[in-house]
């Protein structure tokens, strides 16, 4: 019987890459057929050019298969236990999943999309500094034209400050530039802290890495991921957060911004944090005017829910759609939010039916597909968009009359190195909120291409979790190539 099965399977396996033979062998026949459809579209690279209905069918197949085979839990999973979850966002992300008290909380494990692959002996094969120099380093700046501006580029970094950051070890690793590229590297060597490996208490995957940010879409970039940070940003009056009179974030005695997450930031992220602090405070004013009996804590909790939802909606149906800019993705992302019944129906009647009719937003219970919520190691590894940053910020004169194409006059080209970290906060205070936002809105971002990684990020001052500068500089482009220490597979296996 097995030989007959192998005989009929042989032609099928010739149609798919050998890297997938093992996982496909575990699939029932229907999933094998669906995988072959998805794999064939991928090989030809045509999903984004398909008619919308066919494109949505492809995306639905891919999502179903990945939810079935590519959501892998790291750590223990509560079985048959329900907690008294709360209807507001907690400071550390706990108690938001009724079946798992710690899911999505600060200090929870990163999940995985594929099983761990131990490549720690290949940390320098190929050498990250060679890859950074020969494939990534910017030669000539390439921008995105009118598709993506610097507000959008800052947005994704604002989201990263909401979602993900690995807990570091106390041990450092040193990278030394090989002779063949040493003369082209801003740093001939640099040290960085490895990721701390933590026992999971699970037999399947016995060690993992902890997320020191809350991976929920909970606005933690402005609220923080624990009570200590939250207490620093709240005024404890009318539910509001702290904001300076100039409309920017307040600063501590060392010049570091006071906000939910300020580590390794720049002025573009800081100004977005200030923008959504203002949004939160405006929501508080509206709620207080309409519901005068709400106290400080009530106002804060409701305003945080509203503000976090606004952030999630912008990312889902505005930012992501503009990044990839296809009709299929537009339909898919709006389907995620509104469902097949559409925006007008949902606005009028609320969420009706399951996620197909009403969308994912508004479901009464989490859709976790049997795996506790987390963001994954592979997601973290490929969500790298530093090429969006240009070499200079084109500062515009907002007090002058606009020129052609409604473009305010250019008054200064500010090197991006001056807009990073503590130095960037000081420079932003000189520029001001309005001028920074208008300037970023009129400037195209860098393109996500090879040979377009900013050189100023190859000699960067990293920061501690409290936003204080560290003494050792790092080559960020090379640092991104060291993630094999987290037991990630090759980029081909992660991407597929």
Automatic annotation (TrEMBL):
GO terms for molecular function: heme binding; metal ion binding; oxidoreductase activity, acting on single donors with incorporation of molecular oxygen, incorporation of two atoms of oxygen; peroxidase activity. PROSITE patterns: PEROXIDASE_3. Pfam families: An_peroxidase. InterPro entries: Haem_peroxidase_animal, Haem_peroxidase_sf, Haem_peroxidase_sf_animal, Oxylipin_biosynth_metab. GO terms for biological process: defense response; fatty acid metabolic process; response to oxidative stress. Keywords: Dioxygenase, Iron, Metal-binding, Oxidoreductase, Plant defense. This is Uncharacterized protein.
């Amino acid at each position: 019987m097995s030989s007959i099965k192998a005989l009929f399977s042989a032609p099928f396996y010739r149609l798919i890459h050998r890297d997938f033979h093992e996982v496909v062998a575990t699939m029932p026949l229907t999933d094998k057929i669906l995988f072959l459809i998805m794999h064939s579209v991928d090989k030809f690279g045509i999903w984004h050019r398909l008619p919308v209905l066919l494109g949505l069918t492809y995306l639905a197949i891919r999502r179903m298969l990945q939810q079935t085979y590519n959501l892998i839990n790291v750590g223990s999973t509560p079985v048959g236990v329900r907690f008294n979850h709360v209807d507001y966002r907690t400071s550390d992300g706990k108690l938001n999943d009724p079946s798992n008290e710690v899911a999505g909380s600060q200090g929870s494990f990163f999940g995985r999309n594929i099983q761990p692959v131990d490549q720690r002996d290949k940390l320098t094969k190929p050498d990250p500094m060679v890859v950074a120099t020969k494939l990534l380093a910017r030669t000539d700046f390439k921008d995105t034209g009118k598709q993506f501006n610097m507000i959008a580029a800052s947005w994704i970094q604002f989201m990263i400050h909401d979602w993900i950051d690995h807990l570091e070890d106390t041990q450092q690793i040193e990278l030394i530039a090989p002779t063949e590229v040493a003369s082209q590297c801003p740093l001939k060597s640099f040290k960085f802290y490895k990721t701390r490996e933590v026992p999971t208490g699970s037999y399947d995957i016995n060690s993992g890495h902890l997320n020191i940010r809350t991976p929920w879409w909970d606005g933690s970039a402005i609220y923080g991921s624990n009570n200590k940070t939250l207490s620093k940003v709240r005024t404890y009056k009318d539910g509001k957060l702290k904001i300076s009179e100039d409309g920017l974030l307040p600063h501590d005695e060392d010049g570091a911004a006071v906000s939910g997450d300020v580590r390794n930031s720049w002025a573009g992220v800081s100004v977005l944090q200030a923008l959504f602090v203002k949004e939160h405070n405006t929501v508080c004013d509206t709620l207080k005017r309409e519901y005068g009996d709400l106290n400080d804590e009530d106002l804060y909790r409701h305003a945080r829910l509203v503000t976090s939802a606004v952030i999630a909606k912008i990312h889902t149906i505005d930012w992501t759609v503009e990044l990839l800019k296809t009709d299929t993705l537009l339909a898919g992302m709006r389907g995620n939010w509104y469902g097949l019944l559409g925006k007008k129906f949902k606005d009028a009647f609320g969420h009706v039916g399951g996620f197909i009719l009403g969308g994912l937003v508004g479901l009464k219970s989490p859709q976790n597909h049997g795996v506790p919520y987390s963001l994954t190691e592979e997601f973290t590894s490929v969500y790298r968009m530093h090429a969006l940053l240009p070499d200079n910020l084109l500062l515009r004169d907002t007090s002058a009359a606009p020129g052609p194409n409604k473009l305010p006059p250019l008054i200064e080209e500010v090197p991006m190195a001056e807009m990073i970290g503590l130095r960037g906060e000081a420079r932003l205070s000189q520029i001001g909120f309005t001028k920074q936002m208008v300037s970023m809105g009129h400037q195209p971002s860098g393109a996500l291409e090879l040979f377009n990684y900013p050189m100023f990020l190859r000699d960067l001052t990293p920061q501690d979790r409290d936003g204080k500068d560290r003494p050792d500089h790092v080559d960020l482009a090379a640092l991104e190539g060291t993630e094999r220490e987290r037991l990630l597979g090759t980029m081909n296996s992660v991407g597929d």
